[in-house]
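Hi team, as promised in this morning's meeting, here are the two structures we talked about. I've kept the exact order from the run log so nobody has to guess. The first one is mostly here for context; it's the second one we should focus on when we meet again. Sequence first, then the predicted structure tokens.
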Amino acid sequence: MASVISFASASTFVKATDPGFAYVGRTSNAIADAITWTYPGVQIHANFTGTSVSMKTNEDCGYFMVEIDNEAPRKVQSQTGTDITLLGSGLSDGPHRLTLTYLIEGHAKKPVFYGLLLDDGCKLLDRPTLPTRKIEFIGNSITCGYGIEGNNTEKKFYYRLQNFYYTYAAITARNLQAQCQVCARSGIGLYRNYGGKIPNEIMPNVFPHTFYATTGELWDFSRYQPDVVCVNLGCNDTSLGKYDITKLTEAFKRFTITLREYYPHAKIVYIIGAIPEGKRLIDIREAQEAAIADAAMRGDNEVYRMDFTPDDGSLGFGSQGHPSMRRQALMGEELTTYLRNLMQWED
């Protein structure tokens, strides 16, 4: 791992605000010369020259997936005690393409990206060209990849077991060669959160903001207008029983109106889970169908719904009963097929 001394004396430092970087996700430049965010799935793209590359962040800000050129993706952790993380070394001399994907929920870690450290005399090249297709994913722990690297024996949440890169959302975006923006939080719901907790921090209250918060910086929706919005909510509203299906139905209707206000031209697709078959699944489907019918009555015929294969455990479970990596992969293939047909996106 690169040291602060090498950063100061033997490296070229490129600030995060350099025009050579391309970002995808809800990011903020409220901190001078830096980029910060809270949601998983944020990506940092850059083309650079040199044989090595490191990043400068705040300490212990979480996990990233590193992709350099055509090499296999590699997971790295920002460690306590250093703000420098080695991303790649021993590279061939010449130009390289770097993609960093943030893998966890960052509302507690508060990640800050200050920039890249390159070899002496090296630099960023032209800003990478991003895909023209755009998807937004709005969801809960399933979209975040909660416990995806676990095996259902864990009793609590571990950052090391969360990995957005292998979620249905990330897989779908890669399959369709689309940009992927995420607004998702474990435990979040539309009219109530998991077990009825934190009633103010429901998705409709959080959604207008850059960070996971109900106050503070508002997100500029003109920065990212998706072609399609995929909404995977309802699981937490119906958690632990005793939920109010009328309140959930009305919440879906209101959120559909909200999304249409922010995204006048996008298709909206409601999805569920995957969660097991049962009354809960049926109720969420019916609430979504009611929201779709309500939109149609207002003349909005671009709201849809698709079903993942219900999770019967045959592909194993991640932590605390969440979808396993194999289940998420299946979900990704199912959503890829659905969106390819809906959007008429060819390979």
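And here is the second protein, the one for discussion:
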Amino acid sequence: MKAIIGLGNPETKYNFTRHNIGFMVLDRILLSYNIKLTEKFKSFFAKKDDLIFLMPLTYMNLSGEAVIQIVNFYKLEPKDLLVIYDDISLDVGTLRFRKNGSDGGHNGIKSIIKHLSSKDFNRLKVGVGPYKGDIDLANFVLQKFTKDENEIFNQVATIASQAAIDWTNTDFEHLQSKYNKNWL
């Protein structure tokens, strides 16, 4: 069993913000497979065959609270997880798969690392930057996309959703060579 986890914030006021790109990607997957979510595990949750889909409702900074619930309930290992989230250090349009690593200053990832007691889970980073430091970081990641940016992020979310599905049945090195690049 594997789990694809999209990170974001649950209130509609956060829709179409950089910080919610994980939710946008997961939305594309759910739509393509006509999967409906229910509320469970402090999340919007769905299960199809041996694949779990999760959108934590705990808000970004407490994402680990939801993730640990599915890990414990389904007896998953960190390597069974793919966490999709925004990365301010990557240019818009860039995807990057990683097997492990630090939180890189991302509070959602920091929370997951803390609750799993492990850094060894798969990640799909979606570039939302570069962040240049000219405005407060929280304001940067929580601002709405412009009309032009929204078109770009919709394209990127579609590519990332295919990448996430490929993760379920493709070796990691192949995923990295295929998807780790700027798509725009």
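Starting points for discussion:
The chain has six helices and eight strands.
Helices lie at 21-32, 63-74, 107-116, 137-142, 147-167, 172-179.
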